[in-house]
Amino acid sequence: MNWEQLLSNQRLGDKPKEHAVSRSAFEQDYDRIIFSHPFRRLQDKTQVHPLPEYDFVHTRLTHSLEVSSVGRSLGKIVGQTILERNQQLGSKFSFHDFGAIVAAASLAHDIGNPPFGHSGEDAISEFFKFHTAGRLFKDHVSDWEWEDLTHFEGNAQGFRILNKKQYQGLKLTCATLAAFSKYPRKSLLPDVDKSRRSQKKYGFFQSEKDVFGIIADNVGLIKRADMVWGRHPLTFLVEAADDICYQLIDLEDGCRLGLVSYEDTVELFAGILKDKLNRTKLKSISSIDERIGTLRAMSIGCLIEECRSLFLDNETEILSGDFDVALADSILSAPVLNEISNISISKIYRSRKVMETETAGFDVLPGLMETFTQAICEQDLGKEASKKAKATYRLLPPEIRNDLENECGSVYEKLMSCIDFISGMTDTYAISLYRKIKGISLPHS
């Protein structure tokens, strides 16, 4: 792989353009994402603590903004050194281009996540795996399509959203879309190479396979097998920004909610900061919240520097595709991050409120899936459309109905449009609609 091709500013369907100095195509990508409807919905989607009662607990929106900020910093400082090493790139690119690509891809990294956090992905998958109404579709789709449905993946849904026509025509650059794709492979892959981080999950549905292939060719990703590629180098920085933020900020939230003690939190941050931590100065800050915030900010700075060094030390191996591990798993502070992860799992992610809401999601999302898939696909299953199905169909947004009536020919395509609708819901809307269609509550006049 080479940097000039990797930094392609071409948009699908458009001709290549000269790199602008005042406002680059990558900065435009960032703006297009932040003003889009799918991004706005992240303000009411669970990060860790569902439907938070406290304004300082993070949602998917605040998390995404913070990851983007860290990603921009990582991209810029890495880009600066890459440009120094490759002077011929300086006539076309600046370190701001590297920062803008990573910032835009980081901003969108959770855009495909459904309501109720990662349990929402499992809830959609389990509808097709275990629910009678969902399993009816198995004989109406291909093996690859069934794999998409029974192993729903937020990363692939995000790639789908970013390439759909109706979302204000985002049409992002190939560089940003490739950097966004942490797992550049299809879902149906019998021989997964578990040693490669890029194959841990999958990154696109069958419905977007052709689009992904065009992007991969445009930026010059290394092809490993049929519908399997190596990562775009800047993807490692997007992933690192996400890892840094969710590890440290989930710990910060856990401390503020009383799930992790203040003393334990300080010691965990101290493991990253080492001699940079001035305990006397820390005690001079009166507010405990401000103390934790200060430790978190300093720790992010340390981790950014560690990730930068590791990336640049392995630039040749990254460009050749030989380096394929998460940066945050290989830096000096990796053991501390692993300890934070273990504590987060036991004390934060498995806290009672989190588990209660996740459990509710396993009723809400399959309930919505059953109602709407039956309304959409009754005739495909050999049934006559009922009055209930017709009434339910009219509840779908106009853009989904337009897809179903003009774009979707197969059962798989119809099911994917249904998933677009349900996975795009906010937590609050999903609960509200579920209660109404199940007769638990009625709309207010």
TrEMBL record:
Gene3D superfamilies: eoxyguanosinetriphosphate triphosphohydrolase domain-like, Hypothetical protein af1432, putative deoxyguanosinetriphosphate triphosphohydrolase like domain. InterPro entries: dGTP_triP_hydro_central_sf, dGTP_triphosphohydrolase_C, dGTPase, dGTPase-like, HD/PDEase_dom, HD_domain, PHydrolase_assoc_dom. SMART domains: HDc. SUPFAM superfamilies: HD-domain/PDEase-like. One of its GO terms (biological process) is dGTP catabolic process. This is Deoxyguanosinetriphosphate triphosphohydrolase. The keyword Transport does not apply. Keywords: Hydrolase. Transmembrane segments: none annotated. Residues 56-256 form the HD/PDEase domain. GO terms for molecular function: dGTPase activity.
